[in-house]
Design brief:
346 residues; globular; 2 domains; hpI Integrase, Chain A; 14 helices; 7 strands; three-stranded antiparallel β-sheet; DNA polymerase, domain 1
Length: 346
């Protein structure tokens, strides 16, 4: 684990410690290394199937493999037995869930509810809670950037360029507002909320902003603040400005999502919505989509929503999902006429 602590981010090390102490050592800790045969390892991973999803079991297998790999150079064992195991697959009858994104009507309904004022006192109370937690602005920021929740909450004011960078296109030079992503915040046991620079170089990127997101940020920046403050700050126990907790955003979202009929919506749903927009409305290449999402490679099956009718993509139907002809910009933007970044227009 010392090697993991040196080479990986704190959040990865904490996850490894959690699984090692909670699952792996109780199941395998009584065995000596020479007893760690392929049969024992296969039986251990098979026993985990009722308790853990396939992705979690793959992570546990990776940790077990890493422990054995440390022992091989020290000649404690001749080879790594985990490498001889079969690949972990999804059990028969347990279909992998499709990525879920918000369609146009759902995006409009969500923002209308967040911005509105209900006559029902109980609903009005939830709307006030959502606005006090900056949820309307957070939703617009997520939909316009596709960030992970930790990346959005780690973005400083200095990383936002609302004046725009010059971009040369068919219509001449345009200035495109953009945000630079160079960090992430996550909770680590024993350390609290920790900011790091991202787990890979792909996470460091510049994202052009659609107009509805840029307009929201201009309004927020009308209020004074230091450049190193987060775009969405919080007050610490000592009263100083600090980062907002991702768990707090998720808690607020859970308290209001049933009101808009989106019971399973999470902050990652907004990220998948952004990926689906890039794929459907803008038809970007996979490399460009991966660059904007901060992926080493674009994971289309994991992020692009599928399974609903999209007339705008049909070769003979030039209509939007609401049934009326509309340009691609309106299909993306829930509340403004043209939400695409300037580089994508024309």
């Amino acid at each position: 684990m010392a090697k993991i602590e040196r080479n990986r981010e704190d959040s990865t090390h904490a996850l490894y410690v959690f699984h090692l102490g909670g699952t792996i050592l109780p199941g395998l800790g009584a065995l000596r290394l020479r007893e760690c045969t392929v049969v024992y390892r296969d039986a251990f991973l098979e026993a985990l199937q009722p308790r853990y999803a396939a992705n979690t079991r793959r992570k546990l297998r990776s940790i077990v493999s890493g422990v054995h790999q440390v022992a091989v150079p020290h000649e404690a064992i001749a080879s790594n037995p985990v490498r001889e195991l079969d690949r972990i697959e999804q059990p028969k009858g347990q279909r992998r869930s499709r990525p879920r994104a918000l369609i146009l009507d759902e995006r409009r309904g969500l923002l209308a509810w967040l911005d509105g004022t209900s006559d029902n006192p109980a609903v009005l109370r939830k709307q006030k809670v959502a606005r006090s937690a900056d949820l309307p602005d957070l939703v617009r920021f997520f939909l316009g950037t596709g960030l992970r929740i930790g990346e959005a909450l780690a973005t400083p004011r200095l990383g936002v360029n609302l004046d725009g960078s010059p971009v040369h296109g068919a219509d001449g030079e345009q200035r495109v507002p953009a945000v630079t992503i160079a960090g992430n915040v996550t909770w680590v046991k024993g350390k609290g909320l920790v900011r790091h620079d991202g787990k890979s170089e792909a996470a460091l990127r510049v994202i052009p902003l659609p107009e509805f997101t840029a307009a929201m940020l201009r309004r927020r920046f009308d209020h004074p603040g230091d450049d190193d403050w987060p775009v969405f700050p919080a007050a610490g126990r000592d009263g100083r400005v600090t980062y907002r907790w991702p768990a707090g955003v998720r808690r607020t979202l859970r308290s209001v999502r049933e009101e808009v009929g989106l019971d399973r919506m999470t902050p990652h749903t907004w990220r998948r919505t952004y990926a689906t927009i890039l794929d459907d409305e803008m038809s970007l290449r996979d490399r460009m989509e991966a660059d904007l999402l901060g992926h080493a490679t674009f994971l289309e099956d994991a992020y692009v929503s599928r399974g609903y009718f999209r007339p705008a993509k049909h070769p003979r139907l030039g209509i939007g999902r609401c049934g009326a002809a509309m340009p691609p910009a309106q299909r993306w933007c829930p509340d403004l006429a043209d939400a695409r970044p300037a580089f994508a227009r024309g």
